Amino acid sequence: MLLIHNIGLLQTPIGSTSQRGTAQGENRKYRNASVLIDGETIVGITQDGVLPPCPPDTTRLDAGGAFVTPGWVDSHTHLVFGGWRQHEIPLKLKGASYLEILQSGGGILDTVRQTRALSEDALFARASAFLDEQLRFGVTTTEIKSGYGLDLENELKQPRVIRRLNETHAMDVVATCMAAHAVPPEYAGRTDAYMDVVCGEILPRVAEEKLAQYCDVFCETGVFSVAQSRRVLETARSLGFGLKIHADEIDAIGGALLAGELGAISAEHLIATDVSGISALSAGNVTACLLPQTSLYLNKNFARAREMISRGVAVAVASDFNPGSCPSLNLQLSANLAYLRYRMTPEEILTALTLNAACAIGLGEKLGTIEPGKQADLTLWNADGMELLCYRMGSNQVKAVVKRGKVVVS
Q1: How far apart are alpha carbons 396 and 116 in whole angstroms?
Q2: I want to staple 318 with a disulfide (CB 3.0 to 4.6 A). Which of 41, 76, 168, 328 is the partner?
């Protein structure tokens, strides 16, 4: 057993389902607390200096008055890729937009070329190092999307890497097939023909090999229309995938409405989502996965998080780590921006980074809170509370990380 004691403040949301409305801001707080862990499972929580009864051979970890939260969950990344895209900076400084760079053969298509050129082993080594970095930032679980292969061979290569990561790394990793991320150059001007490949070849093979739990599609001006996105998601659902959608990142063309109609587990980005889209998300019980670092990096508006919460939408906050629109996997910066630009409270932000994020990738029964019966994923912070984590910028505030009941960062 492991006993973590002398915790200054332990703060956690409660439950196994996403928290909406005022409930998103309700956290349980224990002062001078202890957590008892048996193997990978939390079995007891005490406070006010009281220690839970435990066997004499129990390992003890003195938290030294640290602030403790559930391990953070990054519910949206594109972490398996080849190369970087720093050469796009001059284009952006001259005013080129994200879609303009993509339509000229750069952007996602540049990363596709670099990803296709790397072997599975090379992609695995790169991605494993990224997971190490995430862990040091207090993240204990992450979602990873494919979408830099855009053909059968490479859209199988990426999720095979993701599966290896989940099997070998301390982190829990959830895989999403996003073969509908862009139209590959060999299908330029023939988007519907590429849809035939996605729906008729790639998704069935990914399902057959059980390489991903979810399917995502980039529903956006100049990428995939609502009708094309519907076709991808309905095909995915028939094959047993859970549904996600990149919606309203640049224009509100109906992606959020589609997410609500189909009951997707999450809709992601939502920078341009309007009132009708927010209402659809609420009615469909869709978690809004918001990505504030992408708004910062692209110099775009920030999603209407306050309105989403007030209208009963469960909000998660993630990084969107990728080589083009968010080359940062520091989820602590997302927390800062959720406070500064979304105007979310520290309690709402903690729920967005833990329980709601876990629910957005189907792991709310297992992760996202510190409660008896949940997996023992905890982050110890050099802080006295969530307010300081929202306030401090640019420094890693992690003191230690416990994953599945073992200290993996100290």
Answers
A1: 33
A2: 76
